[in-house]
Structures are given as C-alpha cells and as structure tokens.
Amino acid sequence: MAALIYTVSQFRYSKHQISSNYFSSSHFFPNLRFPIRKSTFTSFNPVHSGDFTAFRIRETRNFQTGSMFSDTPVVNDIMATGFTGIVALAFLRLWEETAKHGIFDQKLNRKLVHISIGLVFMLCWPIFSSGRQGAYLAAVIPGLTIVKMLLVGSGIWKDEATVKSMSRTGDYRELLKGPLYYATAITLASILYWRDSPLSVAVICNLCAGDGLADVIGRRLGHQKLPYNVNKSVAGSLAMGAASFVACVGYMYYFSMFGYMEKSWEMVLGFLIVSSATALVESLPISSEIDDNLAVPLATIIFGTFVF
C-alpha cells in the first residue's frame, strides 16, 4: 500500500507540474516560456551581471503541495478520510474474523490488531493535504475509534467481535482501558505532531511495533526474566527496542520520499535513543501498574521532546 500511495502521489505531482501555470519572463526573454510549478521552488533570486539577468532557481521536490484525489484541499482530505477509514475498517474486520474463527489464539490476535492498525493508519498520511486541516481530518479515523471504545466499553453498544479481538479476557469493560488509550495516543499524535514531526513517528511506532512485538516475542522466547522485573523478559525488552527503532527508521525514509522529513543520521540516532529509553521504561516494575498503552506514548513524548 505504501508503494501504491507513493506512485499515485508522484504521478499526480508530475501531471500537475506539467500542466501548471507557466512562468513568463517577458521583460527579459519575450519569446521564452517554460513550465515552472511555483510551489516547487524555495528560492527565486535574480542575479545581475551587466545587461544580462540570470535567475538562480533552487528546486526541491516537495510533495506537500500535492494531492492524491483532488487539487482542492478540502475535497481531497474528505476523500482521503474516507479512503483511510475503509483501509482501517478492512484490517479491523480481518482481525475480527480471525478472532471469531479462532485462527489465532486470542492474545496473539489482539496483538496483531495492536501492531497493524496504527502503522497502516500512518501509511495513509501522505494522501492528506498539507497544513493542519489534513491533520485534523486524518485524526477523525482514530477519533471515531475512541467513540466506539467508549460505547462498547460502557455496554451501550454490543459488539462481541470487537470485544473478542481487542480484550484480554473477553470483558467488554477492558475496552475503556488499553484500547481506549491506544486510540487516544494515535489521535493526539496526529493532531499535535503530524507527519513532519519525528515525535509522531516515534509515538506510533513505539506503541504499535515496539510494544506489540515485545509481548509476542516475550511470550514465546521470554524464558530469561529481567533481574529487576520478573514480569518482563530480556527477549521481550530487546524486541521492543529493536522493533521500535526499525519501524521509526522505516517511516523516516517513507515520509522523506514525500518531502515531509529529511532523513539523516542525527534523526536515526535520535530514534535509537528514544526507542531504547522507552523500552527501558516499559521494562520497569512500575509498568505493571500503568497500562503500556498509556506508559509507552508518555515516555516517548518525554524523551522525544529532549532528543528531537
């Protein structure tokens, strides 16, 4: 899906670049017309040399002004919200069906939901327009999940498939804890930081890839427990740090293709520090008292604020 989004966005960018307004320097070159998409240039500085005026143009490939569905930002974002909702719903339905038919055990199925939903949601961010409007409309999708968790968790809405795929014991009231914190963290990461901030990437990757795989690996390979916390394993903590870091770097490269981030070794080092520090916090005994879906985003934000 990431490749599809990038390919379509690049096609629309190129198409818009060719068909966009033409710049005409009729004063200096009356017969010269060449296509310039103004939004792709970060500087346009005349350099005078005698009777000749040369223009120094520094071009950057900037996909932030592009749109996948429409050149009208509002229309594009509404369509992008619908597309993202369909993708998220498809994944949720997939895991609900696997839970209903017992394809995976309940704990693994719940973690597959945990790992995939946030990461897939973040893959859809480039299809939204630039600015805060895109962030707010993207946040509608996890925001609706918050509403659903509140309704199902309070017993107002009966949804056994959702309860079975997201709860540990099958108790619908569990949705008011971990799943609600999960959806809230992703919603706030979208609104407050958005796709041009490494903090949003770190929050969602640490929460989804890191915390999710820590549990999966810890249950299967976690024979050696941590000396300061018998409820956590060495394998699980290492898996969390590694998975968080790899996912963060992957999304750094992904967003850099669209011009939202600049990939650099400094940012890679920052992700390594934040992922490792968050994994350490998650391994502490206090994590048994605080839900991971709350502790991991908070720790990521605290460390990331100092690092990035």
Automatic annotation (TrEMBL):
It is found in: Plastid, Chloroplast membrane. InterPro entries: Phytol/farnesol_kinase. One of its GO terms (molecular function) is kinase activity. It comes from the Eukaryota. It is a multi-pass membrane protein. Keywords: Chloroplast, Kinase, Membrane, Plastid, Transferase, Transit peptide, Transmembrane, Transmembrane helix. The keyword Transferase applies. GO terms for cellular component: chloroplast membrane. The chain crosses the membrane at residues 74-92, 112-128, 134-157, 178-194, 234-255, 267-286. The keyword Zinc does not apply. Belongs to the polyprenol kinase family. This is Phytol kinase. It comes from Dillenia turbinata.
